[in-house]
Amino acid sequence: MPNKFLITELLLYILPFVLIYFGLRYGKFFLKRFKGLPLTIAIVLLPAWLGLIDSLSKLVFSFSLLPVSIYLTVFCLAVHLYKYIQGLAEFRLVPYYLAASKVAFTALSGFLLGLYLVRIYTYFI
User: Fold this and answer.
1) What is the mean pLDDT of the chain?
2) What does the domain layout of the chain look like in residue ranges?
3) What residue intervals traverse the membrane (predicted)?
4) The pLDDT of residue 125 is above 80
5) pLDDT computed for residue 2 by the predictor
6) Within 10 Å of residue 69's Cβ, how many Cβ atoms?
């Protein structure tokens, strides 16, 4: 039997859209402040995604899947790094940092979307 639906659970479903909207609308100035190591909206949203994965997994499964999601993300990053350095003569951090943040954001977004679908499936079906 799934946990009861709470009104505060709606915050977990609306929060990603609100964070992306406000981050893109009002955060562009702050993202461009650091010239040496630029920030993207994906990097800024990673802590929020980790918190949402922890909250949703506790709601659905009654335990946290955060370590599993971190292990899967690290595995994706290791495969990406292996593919990235094959043709390089010299490794630079900044280009890899930006590409790796996109990979981590995509992996965690997929995991979060999967948790949303599992929660909808377990509650309504």
Assistant:
1) 88
2) 9-124
3) 6-24, 36-53, 59-82, 94-118
4) no
5) 58
6) 22
